[in-house]
Structure formats: structure tokens, C-alpha cells
């Protein structure tokens, strides 16, 4: 039995054939790659919750490192699911180009800040940029996602302005 839902190792998905360094993968292999990366990403996120206290005490290093590594694993996992080339094309299409660039640069700068500069405020700024860029990026995949998000922000900010 071959096709999209085939778990046969010999059945290769042709969408992965032009991936360059990644060979064509079967549906089963893609699912294993996705679920492994996704599972590790969730595991790291759960563990990083304990280190969020470090943000409040002025030492966001552990949280920043685990949060960024979790995001990287999640991106790799979705690459297995969609195909890495297709994922990059989608991430850098006209609608998401700037958001993707900001997200990737903020992840890199978070790691550089953690591993090289080790300045708590700098790390925190890059975490915040990373979180905001990720939310904005993900909202672009849902119909009217960004519009709904903007309306919610305007409503919240409007209430904050009205209260002060």
C-alpha cells in the first residue's frame, strides 16, 4: 500500500527530493522527525518554566537559552513535516519576510547575548523581541490572524490608556 499515509520505508515523498542535503523521506520518517523534535521542544519548554524565575531575579540566561533552543527544535520539526525548502519559502514570502528575519535574528542575538555578552537586560530584550516576532509570525498562518491580534492589542492598550 503506497500513498500519503503509507508507513512503508520504500515509499518516498517526492517533495523532499529537491532538498539538497536532506534525502527524500517517507511519511513515517517525516513523522518521526517531526514528533521527536516537537516532543523535545515541549520537554525543554516545560523544563524552562522553572528557570523563568531567573528573569525576575535579573538572570534570564538559563531561560533564554532553553527558550531559544526550544524554538529552534520546533522549527526543525516543522521542517520535517513540511519540507525544509518549502518551509523557508513560506517563511520568507512577501507576507512574512520581515517577521521571519526579525525572528531568526532575535534567536541568533539571544544566543550571542547569552553565550558572549551575558548582559541580563540585553538578553531580556532579545527574548521579548523573539516572543513578539514568533507570535506575529504564527498569526500570519491563520485567516485574519494578524488583524484579530491587532484588534486585541488595541482593545488592551485602549483600556490601559483609559485607566491611566
Describe the structure.
It is a single chain. The model is unreliable at 1-10 (pLDDT under 50). The chain has one domain (14-163). Helix 3 (61-82) runs parallel beside helix 6. It is 71% helix and 0% strand. The radius of gyration is 19 Å and the shape is globular. The N and C termini lie far apart (65 Å). The chain has seven helices and no strands. It has helices spanning 27-49, 53-56, 61-82, 84-91, 97-117, 120-139, 145-163. It is an all-alpha fold.
Q: Structural class of the secondary elements?
A: mainly alpha
> Which spans have pLDDT < 50 for at least 5 consecutive residues?
1-10
Instruction: State the shape.
Output: globular
Radius of gyration: 19 Å
By DSSP (H or I, 4+ residues per run), the number of helices equals: 7
The helix/strand series, from N terminus to C terminus, equals HHHHHHH
User: How many angstroms does the end-to-end distance come to?
Assistant: 65 Å
Number of DSSP strand runs: 0
Percent of residues in β-strands: under 5%
Quaternary structure state of the chains depicted? single chain
Total separate domains: 1
Mean pLDDT: 83
Note the main sheet: none
What fraction, in percent, of the residue positions are helical? over 70%
Amino acid at each position: 500500500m503506497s500513498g500519503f499515509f503509507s508507513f512503508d520505508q520504500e515509499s518516498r515523498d517526492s517533495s523532499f527530493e529537491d532538498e539538497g542535503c536532506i534525502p527524500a523521506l517517507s511519511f513515517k520518517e517525516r513523522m518521526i522527525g517531526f514528533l521527536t523534535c516537537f516532543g523535545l521542544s515541549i520537554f525543554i519548554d516545560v523544563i524552562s518554566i522553572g528557570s523563568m524565575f531567573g528573569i525576575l531575579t535579573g538572570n534570564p540566561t538559563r531561560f533564554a537559552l532553553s527558550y531559544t533552543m526550544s524554538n529552534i527544535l520546533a522549527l526543525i520539526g516543522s521542517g520535517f513535516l513540511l519540507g525544509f525548502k518549502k518551509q523557508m519559502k513560506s517563511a520568507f514570502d512577501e507576507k512574512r519576510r520581515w517577521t521571519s528575519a526579525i525572528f531568526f535574528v532575535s534567536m541568533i542575538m539571544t544566543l550571542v547575548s547569552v553565550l558572549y555578552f551575558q548582559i541580563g537586560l540585553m538578553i531580556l530584550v532579545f527574548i521579548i523581541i523573539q516572543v513578539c516576532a514568533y507570535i506575529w509570525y504564527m498569526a500570519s498562518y491563520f485567516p485574519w490572524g494578524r488583524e484579530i491580534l491587532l484588534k486585541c492589542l488595541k482593545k488592551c492598550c485602549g483600556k490601559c490608556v483609559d485607566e491611566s
